[in-house]
Amino acid sequence: MILLVLIASVLIAGVTIYQYREQSRDYHQERLERKEEQVKQSIAYTLQETTYPVITENLGLIFKDEIYRIADVQNVNFNIYDLEGQLIKSSRPKFYNDSISECLSAEVLNALKESADKRLVEDNLAAGDKYQASYTYITDPKFKPIGILNLPYYEDNSFNSMELREFLFRLGGVYLLMFIIAIVLAYFISKYITRSLATISEKLHQTNIAKRNEKIFVKNPSEEIVKLIDSYNSMIDQLEQSAVKLARSEREQAWREMAKQVAHEIKNPLTPMRLTVQSFQRKFNPADPEASKKIEEFSHTLIQQIDTMSSIAAAFSNFAEMPAQQNETLNVVKTVKLALDIFNENYIHFISEEEEIIAKLDRTQLIRVVTNLVKNAIQAVPDVPSPRILVSVASEGDYVKISVADNGIGIPDEVKEKVFEPKFTTKSSGMGLGLGMVKTIVETYKGSISLTSQPGKGTVFTVLFPKANKTP
Hints:
Elements: H1 2-49, H2 59-62, H3 66-74, E1 79-81, E2 87-90, H4 106-114, E3 119-126, E4 129-139, E5 145-154, H5 158-206, H6 223-283, H7 291-320, E6 329-331, H8 332-339, E7 348-352, E8 358-360, H9 363-379, E9 389-396, E10 399-406, H10 434-444, E11 448-454, E12 458-466
Parallel strand pairs: 7-9
Antiparallel strand pairs: 1-2, 1-5, 3-4, 4-5, 6-8, 9-10, 10-12, 11-12
Helix pairs in contact: 1-3, 1-5, 6-7, 7-10, 8-9, 9-10
C-alpha cells in the first residue's frame, strides 16, 4: 500500500508537470499565431489605404510611422524585411536595434520559401532568454510577396510556473496525508493478517518431540489459515503417536540390550565353572592323599567365579539404581581427598587451593564418581614410563569443579562421544558401565561432565556440581 501511494504520487506529479508544459506550449503557439494574424491584418489594411505603390521599395515609406501605431495597438514588436532578407523597418526603439538582425540568413530564406504554408517558426536565444521568431510573407492586393514579416515572441511562463508550484504543493500535501494514512492502515491490516501466522509461528517454534505439544486454536481465522492450523494439529497428533511408539520401542530395545549384556557377562564365569566341575568329577579320587588339597583348589576356583558373578550383578544393580537426592551438605575437598585414600598408587596426586567448598550431594555417590574416574585414569597409564594422575578441586563461579587428569594413552576423537554410553568400552575386559553410571549420578544432581583428550598425551575429565547456597 505504501509503495503504491509513493508510485502514484510520483506518476501524478510527473504527469502534472508534463501536462502544464504541454498546455503552456500550446498556449504560446496559439497566441503567436493569433498575434501574427492580427499584425498581418493590420499590415494588409495599411497597404490598402496607402497612396504609395505597393511594392517592396516603398515598404519603408508606407510603414515609416504606421509600424509604430500597429505595434502599439497589437502590443507586440515586429520587423519588416525585403525579399532578400535586408531589414527595412523595425517597431523596436533605436537603442534596441543592436539585438535585431540586419539581414536574414540564407537558411531562413530557403526554409521559408520551401515551407508549404509559406510560414516559418524557429527557436532563438537572446541575452540568455529563449524566444520564438515567426517569418511569413507580406503580399500585395494580388497576393504577390513583397516583403517578409518577422515577429519575435518572448514566452512569459512566470504565471504558469507559479500555478504549477502551488498545485504541486497542494498535491504534495494531499499525498503526504494519504501516505501517513497508508502507513497506519498498512500497520493495522498487516497486524490483523499476521495475527494468526504469529500464533502458528510461535507454536511451531515450541514444538518438541520430547514433550507434549499443544494444538493451535485461533478465533475467526481465514480459510487458508484454517487449513494450515488443521495440518499442524494433525501433525501434532501423528507426532504424539510416533513419540509413544518410539519410546516403547526404545524401552524394549534397551531391555533387550541389557538382557544380552547380562547374559553375556554371566556366561563368561559359567564356562570355567563348568570345566572345573567336569574336571573334578573325572579326576577326583577320595583315596588320593592330596584329596583335601584338590578339594580346596576346586572350592577356591568356584568361589572366584561366584565372586565374579556377584560383582557383575552388583555393577548392573548400581547402574540401574538412580541415586537418591540426599541433599547432604558436605565439604567436597575433604570428601574427594577421602575417596583417594583407597588407592595405593604413588603417582596419584591431589591439589586444591581451598580447604573448604560446600555443596549439597550424597557422600557415597560423590565418592563413587571420583573412584570411577580415577580407576579409568589408572587403566589408561599402565604402559606409560612415568605415569601421573592429578585430581584437583576448585571453585568456578557458582560451581565446584572436580578434574581428573592423566598422561595416559588418551581417547581417539571417533569414540569421545560414546564413552558415556552404557555398555561401551575400549577395554578387553569389563562391562563399560562405569562412566555411564558417573554421568547418571552427575546429571541427577544438576551437574555436568565433559572430557578433553589427545591421543598419546592424556585425558582430562571435568565434573561440575552446583555449590550450596550460603546461608546469611
